[in-house]
Every structure is written in structure tokens, then in C-alpha cells.
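Handout, section 4.2: multi-component inputs.
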Amino acid sequence: MFKDELRALVDGSDGGLASLIMDSSGIALESYARDGAPFDIDMIGIEFSVVVNSIKRATEMLEAGVAREVAVNTEKMTTIIRMLSDEYFLTLTLRPDGNLGKARYLMRTAAPRLLADL
Amino acid sequence: MFKDELRALVDGSDGGLASLIMDSSGIALESYARDGAPFDIDMIGIEFSVVVNSIKRATEMLEAGVAREVAVNTEKMTTIIRMLSDEYFLTLTLRPDGNLGKARYLMRTAAPRLLADL
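Output:
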């Protein structure tokens, strides 16, 4: 059922490649990748859990409030990371020319449904 | 002259609060904050240099290409970080309801001018 939500995110966003739910140690709870996604989806989680933890510390130090969402844009992909709770986060990776606004919207609306089952 | 560019970013973006140019160790080269910006602008640089360095490592590990831009959305602000070079980056902080698309556009067009003077 997490898988269905992840598939809907990837297939519903323009340029979606892969999506996963993971915990703050970088272990994937569930993942879904479109055929031919040009990377190892498990690596995404591990690498970005480091990023997420450094962002958490930074926002706490800045008293900027709770970090909700991070988008990382590189030459080959854009990855959006949305915090579901202190423990879990949701990622969606797009082609660099993907529709960032639509992806953010889909993730925002999926978050409460995912969180209810975590 | 860097100051003028930073002021144009803050004043030209809807909801702009502060902007700075810094090096990868977190030291600000130049900064500009609108009166009443609700945070210490120098802290932003130091905290986000940690974030930027973890993202650099993550994107290298993932062979995702060079990281170009990161946007961090929290309860109280949105900060966009744009890499100018391996050594320098540009940040622009907005109110959470600020116009992210316009801010990204202004940063993208300012980047070559700033880089030419670094």
C-alpha cells in the first residue's frame, strides 16, 4: 500500500523517476523506481539521510522552525525530500526538466495518508 | 557592487528577507538583509555551509552530476542556495509564503554576473 502511493507519485509527476520512504538512518521502508531510472535508489536514501540530518541541525540552530521540505537540483536530477515526521521522510526524484511544482503538490497531499500508516 | 546585486535579489523577490555570498567554509563575503529580518544572517551562512558540503558529497556519491541549487523550506522561512562555483555560493532567504519561482529565476540570472567578479 506504501508501494501504491509511491508509484502514484512517480507516475503522476511529470518527469518522475523514483520515490522512497525512509527512516532517519537511511534505511528504506519502501521504494519504487520507474524502469530505467539511472541510479541506485537505495543509495539515494543513504546519501540523503546525511543531508537531511545536517539540515535538521541547521534549522534548529537558526530557530527557523521545523524543516518541512528540501529540494536538491543537480545536473542529472532533482530530488525533493519531504519530512513526514521526526523519524521518516519521503523522497521523489525527477528528471532535471521535471515539473517541480506538481511534484511538491503531490507529495504534500500524499504525506498525511502515508503518515497515518507509519 | 556585490551588495547592489544582493539588494536587488532581496527587494526584487516577493517575500525576500536576506541574501549573502559565502565561501564553502561558511564565511560571508557580502550580505544584505531587509530591516527586521527575523534571524542572524551570519548564522545562516555557517549553518548552511554544513548542509551544502553534505549535499556535495551526496551528489558525488550518487554520480548525480554537479549540485546546482538547493531549496530548504521550514516553518518560518525558505532558503535557496545556489552554487556559484566549487568555492562560492549564493543564498536567498524568503518568507515561507514567498515566490520561490521568481527567486530562483533572479538567482539564476544574477549568478554569471556575480561569478565574473569573484
